[in-house]
Amino acid sequence: MKKQQPLTVDIHTHILPETWPDLQERYGYGGFIRLEHHKPCCARMMMDDKFFREVEANVWDAGVRLRECDHHQVDVQVLSTVPVMFSYWAKPEHTLDLAKILNDHIAGIVAQYPRRFVGLGTLPMQHPAMAIRELERCLDIGLAGIQIGTHINDWNLDAPEVFAVLQAAEALGAAVFIHPWDMMGKDQMTKYWLPWLVGMPAETARAITSLIFAGTLEKLPGLRVAFAHGGGSFPATIGRIEHGFEVRPDLCAVDNDVNPREYLGRFYLDSLVHDEKMLRYIVDLMGADKIALGTDYPFPLGELEPGKLIKSAGFAPAVESKLLGENAFAWLGIDKSLFS
User: Fold this and answer.
1) Most buried in the list 213, 271, 322, 330, measured by CB within 10 Å?
2) Residues 331 and 226: beta-carbon distance below 8 Å
3) At what angle are helices 200-214 and 234-247 packed, to 10 degrees?
4) Which residues partner with 54 through β-bridges?
5) Quick one: DSSP state of residue 297?
6) C-alpha 56: how far from its chain's center?
7) Which residues pair with 108 in a beta bridge?
8) pTM over 0.85
9) Digits of tens for pLDDT over the chain (340 positions)?
10) Distance CA 290, CA 283 (A)
11) Would you say 41 and 323 are in contact if contact means Cβ atoms under 8 Å apart?
12) Which residues contact 280 (CB under 8 A, 6 or more apart)?
C-alpha cells in the first residue's frame, strides 16, 4: 500500500458478492435483488424481472477496487452492502439468512486485505432479537459495526425496537452507519430521479430528527453513529427543527426536552454534499471532528474523485487530515496505526 500522510479513509462505499443463491427459489417468494451478468465486467441488478441498476466489476471485485483506490489515493475503504439489499420487508429468518451471506462476504474481503478494508454488516432489523445476535456475530467475524436504514418498514428510528439494537451497538462498541433506503413519497415522484435527489436527503433528516426527539442520543451517549450524504437535508433545516421544538414543545418535546441543537457534534456526517460551501457549512455546524470522507463508491451519484472536495476547500492541514481519515478512525473505534 502506498503510504500517505494523512491516511485517506472512505467511510461510505458499497459492495456485493459476485454471485449469491437464487433468493426467490431459496425462500419461495420474490422481491429480492439478483445479479444478471450479461457481459464481461458488467451486470444488471434486477428485482425479480424489473431492472434496478447497471453495475460494473468494481461492485464485487476487490482487485478492481484496490486498483481504483490506489489511483484515487484512498488508503482504506469501509465496506457496506447496497441498501436495496436490506430486505427488511421479508420474513425475518430470510433477511437473517441473506444478511449472513452478505456479512460473511464482507468479512472475507476484510480478512484478505486487513489494511485496506473495514467492514460493516447488515441486520434483520425487523426482528430486534435476531438483529442483536447477528450484530454480535458481525463483530466476532471481524466487522467493525453495522449499516442500517433510515427507517425499518413502518418504524422510524425512534421505535423502541430500534433502540434495543442501538443500545446493543453502544454496549458492544460497534460503529453504526445510517443510510437512506425505500424513500418516502417515492410513488408520488416517479419522474426526474426525484426519490434519489429529494427523497434521500429527506430520509436522512427524518432519521436524525427521530433519534434526537426520541432521546436516543441522550440515553446512549457512547453510541458512535454516522449518517450518509452529509446528513441529507438536516443541516439546512436545523433552524426550523429547533424553532419547532421551541414553539410546539407539546408536539416535539414529548420524549426529550433537550434542544435539538445541543446534539450537533454528538454524531458524525460523511462529506458527500457535492458543494464546497455546503461542506464548509457542515464542518462549521458539526465541528471539524465530526465530518468524515464518504463517496458512495462506486455509484454515479457519489463523489467521482474521492477526497477532491475536501482537498479543494482550502481547510487548514490539521482539519483536512481529520476530514480525510482521522475522524473515520475515531468513529470506527479503530487505531489508525494498524493501517499506517
Assistant:
1) 271
2) yes
3) 40
4) 44
5) B
6) 21
7) none
8) yes
9) 444 467 999 999 999 999 999 999 999 999 999 999 999 999 999 999 999 999 999 999 999 999 999 999 999 999 999 999 999 999 999 999 999 999 999 999 999 999 999 999 999 999 999 999 999 999 999 999 999 999 999 999 999 999 999 999 999 999 999 999 999 999 999 999 999 999 999 999 999 999 999 999 999 999 999 999 999 999 999 999 999 999 999 999 999 999 999 999 999 999 999 999 999 999 999 999 999 999 999 999 999 999 999 999 999 999 999 999 999 999 999 999 999 7
10) 7
11) no
12) 313
* Residue 43 identity: A
Site of grid cell 486498483: 67
CA neighbor of 77 nearest in space, from 292, 300, 335, 280: 292
Domains annotated for the chain, with CATH where assigned, are 9-18+66-338 (3.20.20.140)
Residue 274 identity (one-letter amino acid): H
> What is the distance between the alpha carbons of residues 229 and 98, in angstroms, rounded to a whole number?
26
Residue 235, helix vs strand vs coil: helix
Strand partners, 84: none
Cell of 179: 443510510
Q: Which helix (H) or strand (E) holds 239?
A: helix 234-247
Calpha distance 13→223 (Å, rounded): 21
